[in-house]
């Protein structure tokens, strides 16, 4: 009997060793990883953000909206935390308050915390693009938005601390797939517009190889649902999380971060004649993601991650090309709609203090996981050129680029798009209350900034 037990134990150990060698390629190293989630769906209806035509609060909840946290490290080695939120964007003031709260609690540095938004256009307004609406927000709506934003900070702090409390030795690996429903939306300006269909995935397992979480990245706007679906909804991102989790062991978590998808739309999307079809499209797009994740999980082509990420952060000054003319703003403000709201807001700021920014402080962040993976975080709505350039220069399989991270200042165009013009280059600045497009050195500044904080092994 003892002999049988020993033999069985040896077989189990051999099987586990084979799993480790298959997935990680060499003797794996465990990393302490914790996971947690918290619902952030507004408790009272508020105006959903992302579409200027919406003029009333949401009329129902189709999806629960979530904040999810993944924490690496321990008290001795320090913590690195990534939080995903089902929101259009994360304002810098929210990020900074969460950082300050966690710094006091656990001593985390700014470079080791990142908050990434899903960019769903069916989530609540929390202070991003307030001037984007055709109908201005009324006082009661502004109060609800303020209360929601104030309540978000303790929730994000709490979910980070819960992830730390749940941390346990884990195995971490990454792989890359491909999904094709993202399309370049600027083809009317440039018929040769490019897309990025890559789907990098990170997997967290326990020491028995059971999946605890996956985090995936896809470069695409979350705009499958149009404004006629006035319901809280995670869009294709929410559907992807739901369907990936349905395929994972019970209790496992799926997180989605968005790549450089500012000029990429989901296709199909926004059926104006039959808006209920938007929900069908989102489910199908979520299934495409879930099926590709399933395919990867069944494959052996995973690279092990053997070190905790080391974070670095830098702020860059990005300059606007010109300042607005008060007389022109006054004329525009006398009209109606989104442009009128923008002009009135800017004119009021100029009249009170001349407080129109000539530049913004733009955060960039890098997490170095070692020779096999470097993760780059960029704020705002970043166009696909940045990811494609970084992958070309640094290696397709080694670079993972997250946009909509830590702040939501505005669109971040490349030099090519600035020269082409159009929405992402210039007119989108109206919704963000920015004075004009950027100067043409914006891409060089960002790329040089990224290179200045990349690990030597990546350059």
Automatic annotation (TrEMBL):
This is Neutral/alkaline non-lysosomal ceramidase N-terminal domain-containing protein. Residues 33-124 form the Neutral/alkaline non-lysosomal ceramidase N-terminal domain. It holds the Pfam family Ceramidase_alk.
């Amino acid at each position: 009997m003892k002999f049988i037990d020993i033999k069985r134990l040896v077989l189990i150990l051999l099987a586990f060793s084979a799993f480790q060698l298959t997935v990680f390629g060499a003797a794996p190293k465990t990393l302490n990883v914790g996971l947690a989630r918290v619902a952030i769906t507004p408790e009272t209806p508020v105006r959903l953000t992302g579409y200027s035509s919406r003029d009333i609060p949401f009329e129902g909840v189709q999806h629960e909206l979530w904040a999810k946290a993944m924490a690496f490290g321990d008290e001795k080695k320090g913590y690195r935390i990534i939080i995903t939120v089902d929101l259009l964007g994360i304002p810098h003031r929210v990020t900074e308050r969460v950082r300050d709260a966690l710094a006091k609690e656990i001593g985390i540095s700014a470079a080791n915390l990142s908050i990434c938004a899903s960019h769903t256009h069916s989530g609540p307004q929390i202070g991003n693009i307030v001037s984007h609406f055709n109908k201005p927000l009324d006082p009661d709506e502004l109060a609800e938005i303020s209360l929601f934003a104030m309540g978000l900070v303790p929730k994000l702090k709490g979910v980070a601390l819960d992830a730390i409390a749940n941390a346990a030795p884990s195995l971490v690996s990454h792989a890359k797939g491909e999904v094709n429903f993202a399309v370049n939306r600027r083809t009317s300006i440039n018929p040769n517009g490019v897309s990025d269909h890559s789907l990098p995935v990170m997997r967290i397992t326990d020491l028995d190889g059971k999946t605890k979480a996956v985090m995936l990245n896809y470069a695409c706007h979350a705009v499958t649902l149009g404004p006629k679906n006035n319901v809280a909804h995670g869009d294709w991102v929410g559907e992807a999380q739901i369907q990936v989790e349905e395929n994972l062991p019970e209790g496992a978590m799926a997180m989605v971060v968005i790549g450089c998808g500012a000029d990429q739309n989901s296709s199909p999307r926004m059926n104006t004649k039959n808006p209920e079809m938007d929900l069908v499209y989102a489910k199908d797009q979520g299934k495409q993601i879930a099926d590709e994740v399933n395919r990867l999980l069944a494959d052996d082509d995973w690279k092990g991650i053997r070190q905790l990420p080391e974070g670095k952060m830098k702020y860059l000054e990005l300059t606007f090309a010109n300042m607005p003319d008060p007389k022109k703003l006054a004329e525009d403000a006398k009209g109606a709609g989104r442009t009128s709201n923008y002009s009135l807001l800017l004119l009021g700021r100029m009249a009170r203090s001349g407080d129109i920014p000539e530049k913004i402080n733009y955060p960039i962040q890098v997490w170095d996981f070692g020779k096999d993976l470097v993760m780059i975080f960029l704020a705002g709505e970043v166009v696909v050129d940045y990811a494609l350039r970084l992958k070309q220069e640094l290696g397709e399989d080694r670079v993972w680029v997250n946009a909509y991270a830590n702040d939501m200042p505005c669109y971040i165009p490349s030099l090519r798009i600035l020269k082409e013009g159009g929405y992402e280059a210039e007119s989108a600045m109206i919704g963000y209350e920015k004075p004009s497009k950027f100067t043409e050195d914006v891409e060089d500044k960002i790329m040089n900034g990224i290179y200045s904080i990349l690990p030597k092994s990546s350059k």
